[in-house]
From TrEMBL:
Stored SUPFAM superfamilies: Tautomerase/MIF
Pfam families listed in its UniProt record: Tautomerase_2 (PF14552)
Superkingdom of the organism of origin: Bacteria
Residue ranges crossing the lipid bilayer per the database entry: none
UniProt source species: Actinomadura yumaensis
Entry protein name: Tautomerase family protein
PANTHER family in the cross-refs: TAUTOMERASE YOLI-RELATED (PTHR38460)
Length: 130
C-alpha cells in the first residue's frame, strides 16, 4: 500500500496535478504490483520561501520545475523493482505533463507492514501476517 506525497512549486494547473497522479499511479501498478484502487496520493504546492532544491546535486541539472515524489511503501520489493519504478515514473511524467527527467526526484521510504492502519484503527496488514 503505497502512500504518495508530491511536492512542487506553486502554480500548476489541476490538469498538471492529475497527470502527476496518473503517471505515478500507473508506474506503481506496472512495476510495483500495486492493486487496483490502492490509491492514496497528495500534492503540496510551495512558494519559493518553502521549497529549496539543489540545482546541481550529484551532477543532475535541475530547473525550478522540480517535482519531489515521496513514496512510503511496505519493504517487500527488491532493487530491480525499485529501479523499474523510478524509470517508469520518469518516462510517464516526461510524456505527460512534460516533466524533464532531471526534475523528477523520487524518495522511497520503506516500512514494515504493521506500520499501516488503513482505517478503523486496525493494522490490517499485520493481521494478514498472522
Amino acid at each position: 500500500m503505497p502512500l504518495v506525497q508530491v511536492s512542487l512549486r506553486r502554480g500548476k494547473s489541476p490538469e498538471y496535478h492529475r497527470a502527476l497522479f496518473e503517471g505515478v499511479y500507473r508506474a506503481m501498478r506496472e512495476t510495483f504490483n500495486v492493486p487496483e484502487d490502492d490509491r492514496f496520493m497528495t500534492i503540496t504546492e510551495h512558494d519559493d520561501s518553502t521549497f529549496s532544491v539543489s540545482p546541481t546535486y550529484y551532477g543532475v541539472e535541475r530547473s525550478d520545475e522540480v517535482v519531489i515524489i515521496r513514496i512510503t511503501a511496505n519493504n517487500t520489493r527488491g532493487l530491480a523493482q525499485k529501479q523499474a519504478l523510478y524509470q517508469r515514473i520518469v518516462e510517464l511524467l516526461q510524456a505527460d505533463p512534460g516533466v524533464r527527467p532531471e526534475d523528477v526526484f523520487i524518495n522511497l521510504v520503506e516500512v514494515l507492514p504493521e506500520n499501516w492502519s488503513i482505517g478503523n484503527g486496525i493494522a490490517q496488514y499485520a493481521a494478514q501476517q498472522g
